[in-house]
Amino acid sequence: MKTIKLNNLKYMWMLTTALVCLTGVSCSHNYLEITPTDRVSDAAILADSVLFEDYVINRYMGIQQTNKEAEGTPPGFGRGFEYALWSSLTDESMYTNDDNTWLIQRGQIAPENTGIAGTFWGRSYRGIRDINYALNHINEVPMSEGLKNRLTGELKFQRAFRYFDLIRNYGKVVLVGDRVYDLTDDFSSTDSLYVRSSIKDGIAYVRTQLDEAAGLLPVDHSSSNWALGRATKGAALALKSRLLLYAASPLYNAGSWSDAAKAAKDVMELQRYSLYQGGYGKIFLTPDNNPEIIFERLYATGAVHVALEIANGPNGYDGWGGNTPLQNLVDAYEMANGKAITAVGSGYDPAHPYENRDPRFYATILYNGAPYRGDTVWTYTPGGKDSKDGPSNWNTSKTGYYLKKFMNDNLPIVNPWGIAGTQPWIYFRYAEILLNYAEAQNEAAGPDNSVYSAINQVRERAGMPDLPEGLSQTEMRTAIRYERQVELAFEEHRYYDVRRWKIAEVTENEPAYGISVTKENGIFKYTRITALSGKHFETKQYWLPIPRAEILASDNKLEQNTGYGN
């Protein structure tokens, strides 16, 4: 018997290994030599280009996976332990029944208790190992040079995606290069395995990977072998745009705004993408022939994500009221005339708070009086069917709102299993690129005409008026941040945006507000309430803690992020 001490940097799921050993568990050498019968061997994969390509495609399945990876839980929808979205770690929403989100919103995250956010380190390094394996052996596979280049580009994109996920969550990361570790390696003297590179070096490495990927990948999916959902040149450049935008931001301070603007401009100049004009709410329900989508994850009947409609629908419709919008987000939506609800002359009426708002509000949030599935959402008390007085009252929203975005009203709420859950998860879309450009160019050169053009395209598509001329750089910065907040709501941007701007100690220390609606003599009264008590943010939370198990498995050689102990 030999005892093997492992962590995810040492060993990330070999395709042909039949046993996963945990720290301190003894593993039989003979057992490891048994040929598994439940999977394809590496020898078979390296001898067959079709199998090898399937291996590469399967690496997409792990991108932005969760700790339910073994159960196939997808990204975005069902982002965490079960059904919680990443938005429910921010000032966008809260998860009604916790789902291991509340401890993060309350600032209680720790290396021993990472809640919904504890999966990035392990899953990312497992994925990197799998990708390195493929890159190290691709020259052994009989295939055309063109196919080899394409698959190499996909693998480099996947590796860059993994590292970017690590960087944006932990800051400094371990760069393992092309190395592939297995159970026979001696890790006792490999201290370099635990050295975390600087943020600047990490970003430079990912940038190089993306440049190489972009040079190898096709521009579009014209070939039948390149279905939607696989990386293209545009996907690589879009990830580079986001990477360099983050790099230039105050939290990272590891890049230039002009480089970030150019990276976004490179995507724009492909002239491959444009804003979808079929309605803001339908962007997320239209996976095919949608010119706005740059990179997405697709689902089909039999391979679905969580059933969004029942997971988030109002309790009056037998929904579970999962990710419920906060009043903090509701208050952020401008009036239809482009003025904040607090601005003089906005026309905002507290007695009718949902009238004449930014059209994206109606496509994103269900509120008291909202039309829904041929009926109306009623969250008022007493008696509102979507309040605590309605059916399934344990699923009643604590915020007074329900999620509308992503929901497909043509899919069933009751008994949706195997039918619902086929909406695509969009990683990159063109509106983000325009907003990336507007932000970076404004920071680099001020609010020039190109900044106005980029942001006004997004506003015009939404049905909002153009920004007023003559804004200062600071005023434009505020406008761009607003646009990102509402245009990209619930798409996993807000969590990272408020951190990279270093404003999370403001936004995340605001109470988690909701609304209480009462009805007396036919008149609705709206009262602000605290929906989740104890919301709190500390500066250490700009980065996630590395899980304690990883630190211990490295014999405490792996450096923990500041504020979380050793």
Discrete helix count? 18
**Rg, Cα atoms, Å:** 24 Å
Low-confidence stretches at least 5 residues in length (pLDDT < 50)?
A: 1-32, 64-74
Order of helices and strands: EEHHHEHHHHHHEHEHHEEEEEHHHHHEEH
The side-by-side strand order for the widest beta sheet comes to 1-2
Oligomer: single chain
Largest sheet: 2 strands, antiparallel
Mean pLDDT: 88
Distance between the termini: 32 Å
Cα shape:
globular
Helix content: 25-40%
How much of the sequence is in beta strands? 5-15%
Total beta-strand segments: 12
Derived from helix and strand composition plus strand pairing, the structural class reads mainly alpha
Structure overview:
β11 (about 510-520) and β12 (about 525-530) form a beta hairpin. α6 (about 145-170) packs antiparallel against α7, α7 runs antiparallel to α8 and α8 (about 235-250) packs antiparallel against α9. The chain has about 575 residues and is mainly α. The radius of gyration is 24 Å and the shape is globular. The protein has helices spanning about 30, 40-45, 50-60, 100-105, 120-135, 145-170, 200-215, 235-250, 255-270, 310, 325-330, 360-365, 430-445, 450-460, 475-485, 495-500, 505, 550-555; strands spanning about 1-5, 25, 95, 295, 325, 365, 370, 375, 400-405, 425-430, 510-520, 525-530. It has a two-stranded antiparallel ribbon. It has a two-stranded antiparallel ribbon with strand order 3-5. A two-stranded antiparallel ribbon has the order 4-10. The protein is about 35% helix and about 10% strand.
